[in-house]
């Protein structure tokens, strides 16, 4: 074995060790970077699988929407119930129309003669906008309304 060969035998393993050290030192930061990007993507992704980002319906210059209240509407005659989301500007006629549709009371011969009452007082039918009544968030003390069909004789 020549001196040149002996020197090559010493240098070659050192180069391999140095190359492995460089490769090993890059693997750990690369793995950490991938893990950090995966966590960031998961944190910014939608909460449900398969959902995608939806385009904004309104621009940021639009005023904030009115407070939404959930009310329970019941037809005590048949026990039909539905929940509706309303705001202060929702009219009683809109509630009657939506509730009739949800309860399948849309027959043309039943048009008119529908009245809406607060469950606590069925002597005075509600009328106009709901903001004038004691709207409150749904819960044990939430607003329940009775929808009654009372044809005039």
**Oligomeric composition of the shown chains:** single chain
The computed structural class is alpha+beta
Number of helices: 2
From the alpha-carbon coordinates, what is the Rg to the nearest angstrom?
Answer: 35 Å
Total number of β-strand segments? 4
Order of helices and strands: HEEHEE
| Shape type | rod-shaped
Distance between the termini: 123 Å
- Strand adjacency order, main sheet: 2-1-4-3
Strand fraction equals 15-25%
What this model shows, in words?
- The protein has 153 residues and is of the alpha+beta class.
- The protein has 2 helices and 4 strands.
- Strands 2-1-4-3 form a 4-stranded mixed β-sheet, covered by helices on one side.
- The longest helix is centred in the first third of the chain and has 42 residues, at 3-44.
- The radius of gyration is 35 Å and the shape is rod-shaped.
């Amino acid at each position: 074995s020549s001196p040149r060969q002996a020197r090559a035998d010493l240098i070659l393993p050192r180069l391999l060790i140095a190359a492995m050290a460089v490769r090993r030192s890059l693997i750990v930061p690369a793995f950490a970077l991938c893990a950090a990007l995966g966590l960031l993507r998961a944190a910014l992704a939608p909460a449900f699988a398969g959902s995608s980002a939806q385009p904004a319906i309104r621009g940021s210059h639009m005023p904030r929407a009115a407070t939404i209240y959930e009310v329970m509407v019941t037809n005590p005659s048949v026990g039909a119930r539905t929940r509706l989301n309303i705001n202060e500007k929702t009219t009683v006629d809109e509630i009657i129309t939506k509730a009739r549709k949800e309860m399948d009371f849309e027959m043309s011969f039943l048009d008119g003669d529908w009245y809406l009452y607060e469950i606590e007082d069925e002597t005075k039918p509600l009328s106009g906008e709901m903001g004038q009544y004691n709207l409150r968030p749904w819960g044990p003390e939430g607003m329940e309304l009775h929808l009654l069909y009372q044809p005039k004789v």
